[in-house]
Amino acid sequence: MSAIVARRRPYAGAVQLTAQRMLNFLAFLLVLGTIWFAAATFFQIPAYLLPTPVTVLRTLDENFAEVVRAATFTVACTMAGMAISMVIAIALAVAFIASDRASRAFMPIIILIRTVPMIAVAPLIILIFGRGPANSIGVVALLTFFQIMLAAKRGFLSPSANVLELMHSCGATFWQTQLKIRVPFAIPYLFTGLRIAAGSSILCAMFAEWLSGAPGLGMLILESYSVQNFPLMWATVLTSTTAAFMFFTLTLAMEQLVTDWSR
Amino acid sequence: MMLKLAPPPCASAHPETGLNQLSVEGVTKSFDIDGRTVEVMGPLDLSLKKGEFGALIGPSGCGKSTLLRMIADIFPPTSGRITVGGVTPSVARLDHDIGFVFQDPTLLPWRSVIDNIRLPLEIVGKSGRLSGATPQELIDLVGLSGFEQARPAQLSGGMQQRAAIARALVLSPRLLLLDEPFGALDEIVRYRMNLELLRIRAEINTTSLMVTHSIQEAVFMSDRVFVLAARPGRIVDIVEVELERPRKLSQMNSAAFTDAVNRVRTSLFGEALGMFGDD
Amino acid sequence: MIDGRRALLPAGAMLAFLAAFQLAAAVNMLPATLASPLQIAKGVADSADLLWFHLEPTLLVAATGYLLAVAIAIAVGALVYVVKPLEPMVMTVGTVLDSIPMIAIAPILVIWMGLTLQMRLTITTIICLFPIFISVLQGLKSPPPTAEELFVSLAASPMQRFRLLGMPYALPYLFVGLKISAPLAILGALIAEWTGAERGLGVYLLSAMFGMRVVALWSGVFVACAISVSAYLLVCLFERLAVADAGHREVGS
């Protein structure tokens, strides 16, 4: 066995991962579609209730513009929400690293709040932010905030004692240590946190839309359901699942990229 | 006091062919690594008579742990034949005829010492052999009296290993396999444990095969030392140890001991010894 | 877990925070959509009967769904443990099902089951299931390799391996999953009610939201948070009691 492991191109891992997951997903959809078709035929479920996969795809094609518009809304809100929560989360994490007092004062509260699923607070967010995109962004931000903050904090604390002593003996200030050491060490943790947060963020955005009526995928599902346009509803469901899966895969790939890069 | 630990004569229906309790013939083992087939061992022949204590010693990569696991039926050899008490390792394992002591004591941390020793009895259930020694007798035998209710975390490494040995013996196996059981212990404790194991064996006389990386331990404990070389793993020498039993630490000064150790060392290192000057 | 002295600082911070809020309310600096701590407290006290009327079915659904999820997770975990080839398939199915939005599953379940208790139980169970299942699976894989070899050498049956080796090692991991899922069970019950129910905390919240009844909504959300945290702490307590004897390891979450 060679003692030196060959260094792969950093992109290779991420690309391979993405490709593999997309393939798995497509395979799953195909299998699901087949089972769906078989079950619908066998159990004679009325077509208006459970349309065939072909019908669903055709509906998707017909209403493409509308679905894409809704999807764009949802994804945009999600990304905005995550961006906002990242900024606040990282800022707070730095503050907690800087001041041990603040950390001891606020961390237990944050950990306790974390146990409350943020979606349960959604009606409150909707009340405060109204019916537009703001509440989707708010819900996503609130939900992803805790995950990202804890990941950032863990990342900032990850450099070994030896490295920190080295910086200290060089006379580095807090900010120098922060920027030169803690941030690079924290980046992989940050991306891991992003991945965990991303997993449910699109679904949360859709959730907020469902309750509030903002024009995204969630609302589209509700609308098509209420007018009994089931093919459209299923088409939207398919789109949202794909969007969530792809979003998650994107963060997984980014995490892989960063991990490979840091080797 | 002779403990009733030898396998009861009529408990198993397996006839013992010949005198060999353990027989390894022409055994090879290959692994698939990155698409290539790597032959790590073979062909290898080895045998132990009933009641014998054999030691396996060799450099890392010679496959001594692998061999032990093939005998224990944890995985099969690529080719060749292994018999334990006249039957295949699979039959022997399912019949609970093989006791295995790992390098790591591998006690279940949530069970007390006596419950750990009882584990094989629980697995075998009511149909198992009940005519061996009881867990309590074994605890006394290995010198853990008073620690029955202790948790593994409360015991030292040496004591945990004693419990592991007791567990390996609770079903009165025909063959006891030990994979560097004292490798993780410091030297002083190791001498003690060697004597302990010899004392335990004096009571029960189970055929044993022990892997070790200490030449002294190999010679001190065994009747025969099998010296292995690596790439591929094979036996290069078999050294008979002519020391009386019961063994005592003072025997380490005897000529017979030194001769055996030298022979093992020479076989292990070969011409390399010339580089450092022969002693 | 709760050390008297260490709780002082966060408790103090919390009180300061609440005091600041109350102060802002007192000088009318609070936006209309925010309620002051005293208002919330009064709201809870005044509507206590009504809140309990709605809380009861929610708690019932949450508890039942949770227990169902635990049972299913352990059962499927045992299956995957014993029949190893099933694992990749179960994992793929599980991950994809986990990424299907609940908003998509909810209407499907309504079509299938109608606005019934079964529908609400199903939603709750589905939401709790995955975290518990993942933890069980992770825990079942945690025994050291020599322990697995030990059980092979002892010729243990698959069920014995599960019972005597897998589950005890999985216990710390299982509790991590149980702790994560306890608040999710409450959430599941709420979502189930938002999908369609006549009575329940979720219904209360939604009606307060649509009716712009600020204090009622804040009180309801406060109660929801309180029971979520209580559920989590209850599981922590249960964990303490269940692993009371020494020899158990803690797994960081």
Summarize the structure.
The complex is a heterotrimer of chains A (263), B (279) and C (253). Chain A is an all-alpha fold and 263 residues long.
Structure description:
The complex is a heterotrimer of chains A (263), B (279) and C (253). By secondary structure, chain A is mainly α. Chain A has helices spanning 10-43, 53-62, 64-98, 100-114, 122-129, 133-156, 161-169, 174-212, 217-226, 230-261. Chain A has one domain: MetI-like fold (Orthogonal Bundle), CATH 1.10.3720. The two termini of chain A are 20 Å apart. Chain B contains nine helices and nine strands. Chain B has a domain at 29-97 and 177-188 and 209-279: P-loop containing nucleotide triphosphate hydrolases (Rossmann fold). Chain B has a six-stranded mixed β-sheet, sandwiched between helices. A three-stranded antiparallel β-sheet of chain B has the order 2-1-4, with helices on one face. The longest helix of chain B is centred in the C-terminal third of the chain and has 18 residues, at 187-204. By secondary structure, chain C is mostly helical. The model of chain C has no long low-confidence stretch (mean pLDDT 86). The B-C interface holds B 69, 72-74, 93-96, 98-100, 102-104, 106, 108-111, 119-120, 122-123, 151-154 and C 144, 146-147, 149-157, 160, 164-165, 168, 245-249.
List the topology elements.
The complex is a heterotrimer of chains A (263), B (279) and C (253).
Chain A: H1 10-43, H2 53-62, H3 64-98, H4 100-114, H5 122-129, H6 133-156, H7 161-169, H8 174-212, H9 217-226, H10 230-261
Helix pairs in contact in A: 1-10, 2-10, 3-4, 3-6, 3-8, 3-9, 5-6, 6-8, 8-9, 8-10, 9-10
Chain B: E1 20-33, E2 36-49, E3 53-57, H1 64-71, E4 79-84, H2 89-94, E5 98-101, H3 113-124, H4 135-142, H5 157-169, E6 175-179, H6 187-204, E7 207-211, H7 215-221, E8 224-229, E9 234-240, H8 255-269, H9 272-276
Parallel strand pairs in B: 3-7, 3-8, 5-6, 6-7
Antiparallel strand pairs in B: 1-2, 1-4, 8-9
Helix pairs in contact in B: 3-5, 4-5, 7-8
Chain C: H1 8-26, H2 37-46, H3 48-82, H4 86-99, H5 102-113, H6 117-140, H7 145-153, H8 158-195, H9 201-210, H10 214-242
